[in-house]
Specification:
Blueprint (H helix, E strand, L loop, with lengths): L2 H30 L15 E6 L4 H12 L3 E7 L8 H6 L7 E4 L5 H14 L4 E7 L3 H12 L4 E7 L11 H22 L2
Parallel strand pairs: 1-2, 1-4, 2-3, 4-5
Helix pairs in contact: 4-5, 5-6
């Protein structure tokens, strides 16, 4: 068989694999739905050393500040603290004392949120933390943090309500979030597998 035919078969094989992957993803989303993305909080038995707030939106910081004001921790770690919605100034305006805030300015992804916050946890010799993110982002966050921390600290999770709910039908933005989260969960699963 001439080499051009082999190349065509390889290209066709990749194309068919891609189509099956897309169809499989769509079926998975249909079967699992949006509820799979959201998880329940795992409240700590008592106060923790830190609250880790992931960047992304102000609701996460507001939720983390409420936990702090209610005695959830002695410190607050702001991941990607340069992004609006996660700045030290905003945390202070929500009632978190400046001396309790630890800024981590470099994270650009959930993976880096986990990796860089763990470096802070180790540097500060903390033993426990509450991780705060949005409800729709909860499964990927827990999967990532549990893998990267690998029992380096006791982690608990608390999720900010984003209004993300399938019971009232999905808006276009919620459909985009759902597709994006499923794609990222698949990508992160492979990435964490080879770490």
């Amino acid at each position: 068989m001439p080499p051009i035919h082999k190349l065509k078969k390889v290209i066709l094989g990749f194309f068919l694999s891609f189509v099956l992957f897309i169809i499989g993803g769509a079926i998975t989303i249909f079967i699992l739905g949006t509820d799979y993305l959201t998880m329940d909080d795992s409240p700590p038995p008592s106060t923790t050393d830190a609250i880790i707030v992931l960047s992304g939106n102000i609701e996460r910081l507001e939720h983390g500040a409420e936990l702090f004001r209610n005695g959830g921790a002695d410190h607050m770690i702001l991941t990607n603290s340069t992004e609006n919605g996660t700045t030290k100034k905003e945390a202070i305006s929500l009632g978190v004392p400046g001396q309790a805030i630890i800024e981590e300015p470099s994270a650009q992804s959930t993976y880096e949120n986990a990796k860089f916050s763990m470096e802070v946890i180790k540097e500060e010799d903390f033993e426990s933390a509450i991780v705060v993110t949005s409800d729709y982002h909860s499964r990927r966050t827990k999967m990532t943090f549990d893998d990267i921390y690998d029992e380096e600290a006791d982690l608990y999770y608390s999720f900010a309500d984003s209004g993300f709910a399938s019971s009232d039908g999905l808006s276009e933005q919620e459909k985009m979030i759902t597709f994006s989260e499923y794609a990222k969960i698949i990508g992160y699963s492979f990435r964490l597998l080879f770490e």
